[in-house]
Specification:
By secondary structure, the protein is of the alpha/beta class.
């Protein structure tokens, strides 16, 4: 096989826009300050073109606003090398050198209105307002030189009370189609009355940042200014940066407004029972929540309010490596016209994609509108969760496939966020690495992790939610020796949670982690349920590996112990 691949109103009065204004006002009051709605760098005007021109963007460039998929396909094929149409109809695109996020290059502007809110450190590195302005000017100047500029106006958040308007400005048709899929698409009337956006993404990823500028450490920069309500991307064409930029904004605004933003997938059963799935990329959030027997609310980003949960996004962003119709039929069949396939290898003649080919990256992806999943629930809103599932990918092979957690254990493991970085999701990661990611989404946190954990604990108490730790990683030994727990067994465990089987199960205590593991799960081999039974090496090796992981948990939690209650600290592993 020969392969390829190596005129707007100045002040909108719609309910959605009024609710957004209330959101900012409410957030300011709850922070103890006077009304602090973010200041816009431009003034509202009656013209879309004038609005763009006042941001420093040229109106002489040919602007495609909310262009239909067919037109974006044409532009990608004509102007973007490496683009193609797959045999199933999806647009195949290449993201250039960067095939994953660049978390080391994420910056947040230090501003008086937000400086006391942000969890500063390795996750949120400070950038001066001057450096951000220079990045913005550099990005705008680049976009102004392009023959084509694409604008997509959409929404983040399905609940009108908390929805924000997002504008994306970019120079690649691929990026415009990607965000068309990932944001909530406006109706013709909503687009006509869109007005001034609440947040704008300026994506000039084809052009490098100035590495020598203050606050820069490479020629890649992904920077957010909450005060200016802007995000600027330079030096990376990986589309996932835009998606996670929107999440970072919501991850800041929602807790400030008194509701809980979550890095989770979510689905709903026939009886209206809602489940949340927490986990980093590659742990199974998208796959396990796409269940034909349940309605999909969303696959990655949600908010839990006083009335239930809502999805932030309008689409899904699924890993495509080793994808097959047999293992993941819902996702496989969603890859059709309008979807975007990233960095995949395909047959030059038939355009059939080889989903097992890793020659470009492990992090092959597909972005598609949520309605491409037949079981999607639209609008993407549900009730209060009954089950909370913490997904982890244990690279040591010593965590059980499923454990029932006490409230204190739930908080301990939520704050810890143990998993393994899956190859390809971040630049430079080529095999799983044990890591701790607070709240199962540390790269996307804006507030201190304990703030999110305290809000989740209150929600769990109020609604009597059951919490489970589900390991989709290795069994029988560590990575390289053991085997990844099969998808069919992980699905059987999730089914047992939803059917109520595990609520009635008999449990045994599991060693140093003090976890409760079921003695039997329908369609899951009993031997798999206890890691010590499944271990293929000698008992001494198992004990030492278990102790090593327990020590890593203890060392990691020292960062949060001073803000955690004694029962949460005691809920961790004890040696």
């Amino acid at each position: 096989m020969q392969k390829c691949g190596s005129g707007l109103a100045p002040a909108c009065t719609r309910p959605t826009c009024r609710s957004t204004a209330r959101l900012y006002s409410q957030a300011a009051r709850q922070s103890g300050r006077a009304r602090q709605r973010f200041q816009s760098p431009v003034k509202p005007t009656s013209s879309f073109e004038q609005l763009l021109s006042q941001t420093g963007l040229s109106i002489t460039t040919q602007i495609q606003r909310n262009a239909p998929a067919a037109q974006l396909y044409e532009h990608a094929l004509r102007y973007e090398p490496g683009s193609a149409i797959s045999s199933s109809g999806a647009l195949i695109a290449r993201s250039g050198k960067k095939t994953g996020r660049s978390p080391r290059d994420k910056r947040v502007v230090e501003e008086s209105a937000t400086v006391d809110d942000v969890w500063w450190g390795p996750v949120n590195k400070k950038l001066s307002a001057e450096s951000f302005a220079a990045n913005y000017e550099r990005a705008a100047n680049y976009l102004n030189t392009q023959d084509h500029m694409y604008v997509f106006d959409g929404f983040a958040g399905w609940d009108p009370r908390y929805r924000i308007k997002v504008r994306v400005v970019c120079a690649r048709a691929y990026h415009a189609l990607f965000m068309n899929n990932m944001l909530i698409r406006p109706t013709a009337e909503e687009l006509e009355n869109f007005g001034e956006p609440d947040f704008t993404i300026i994506n000039a990823g084809q052009y490098p940042a100035e590495e020598s500028a203050d606050g820069m450490t490479s020629n890649t920069s992904v920077a957010i200014s909450f005060e200016r309500r802007q995000m600027v991307i330079l030096g990376t064409e990986y589309a996932g940066e835009m998606k996670k930029g929107v999440f970072a904004v919501m991850h800041y605004l929602m807790p400030k407004a008194g509701v809980l933003s979550l890095h989770s997938s979510c689905n709903e059963g026939p009886r209206g029972d809602v489940s949340l799935f927490f986990g980093l990329s590659g742990t199974g959030k998208t796959t396990l929540s796409a269940d034909p027997a349940r309605l999909l609310i969303g696959d990655d980003e949600h908010v839990w309010t006083d009335t239930g949960v809502f999805n932030i996004e309008g689409g899904c962003y699924a890993k495509a490596i080793d994808l097959s119709a047999k293992k993941e039929p819902e996702i496989f069949n969603a890859i059709r016209f309008g979807s975007v396939l990233e960095n995949v290898v395909y047959d030059e003649q038939t355009r059939a994609v080889d989903y097992s080919d890793r020659s470009i990256t492990e992090n092959t992806r597909c972005a598609y509108p949520i309605e491409y999943i037949p079981s999607a629930k639209v609008p993407c809103i549900g009730g209060h969760p009954k089950n909370i599932i913490l997904l982890t990918c244990d690279a040591f092979g010593v965590l059980p496939p499923v454990s029932k957690l006490t409230p204190a254990q739930a908080m301990y493991h939520f704050i810890s966020g143990y998993t393994a970085k899956i190859a390809g999701t971040e630049e430079g990661v080529t095999e799983p690495e044990a890591t701790f990611s607070a709240c199962f989404g540390q790269p996307f946190l804006v507030w201190h992790p304990v703030k999110y954990a305290q809000m989740l604990a209150r929600k769990m108490r109020e609604h009597n939610a059951h919490v489970w730790l589900v390991n989709t990683g290795w069994s029988g030994g560590a990575y390289g020796v053991g085997k990844r727990i099969s998808l069919k067994h992980s699905r059987a465990i999730i089914d047992a949670i939803h059917s109520g089987e595990l609520e009635k199960a008999t449990y045994t205590n599991y060693g140093a982690f003090n976890l409760q593991i079921p003695q039997a799960v329908f369609k899951v081999p009993d031997r798999l349920l206890n890691p010590s039974d499944a271990w293929t090496g000698n008992p001494e090796e198992f004990s030492s590996t278990l102790a090593k992981l327990a020590q890593l948990f203890q060392a990691n939690f020292k960062t949060y112990a001073d803000k955690a209650t004694p029962d949460i600290v005691a809920a961790g592993p004890q040696l």
